Amino acid sequence: MKFESPFGIGEIVTTHQLRSGDRIRHDLIGEVLGITFLKDGQQSIHVRTSDGHMMQFLPSELIGDPDFDQEAGKYAAPA
Questions:
Q1: Within 10 A of 47 (CB to CB), how many other CB atoms are there?
Q2: Is 46 a residue whose pLDDT tops 90?
Q3: pLDDT on residue 28
Q4: Shortest CA distance to 51 belongs to which of 78, 21, 30?
Q5: Could you give the CA distance from residue 54 to residue 43 in angstroms, rounded to a whole number?
Q6: Average model confidence (pLDDT) for the chain?
Q7: What is the pLDDT of residue 13?
Q8: In angstroms, what CA-CA distances link 12 with 38, 44, 71?
Q9: How far apart are CA 62 and CA 7, in angstroms?
Q10: What is the pTM of this model?
Q11: Could you tell me if 64 and 56 are in contact, meaning their C-beta atoms sit under 8 angstroms apart?
């Protein structure tokens, strides 16, 4: 069985801005520390946010960094 995720360990991600009535939840930025694959096929992405909290998100709640190399599992070295 092969497991794939749209995000990689160490990737910097942001949350989609969510609205609830007249309230807007601020975007969060953080680093992916872990990914849990659940029996029902869902994933839980574990993120340490910039304020130090550990939070869990669904992949649909996050925006990945296009500069992160998924194949290598890291950011490319600066040129």
A1: 25
A2: yes
A3: 87
A4: 30
A5: 16
A6: 87
A7: 94
A8: 22, 16, 15
A9: 9
A10: 0.80
A11: no
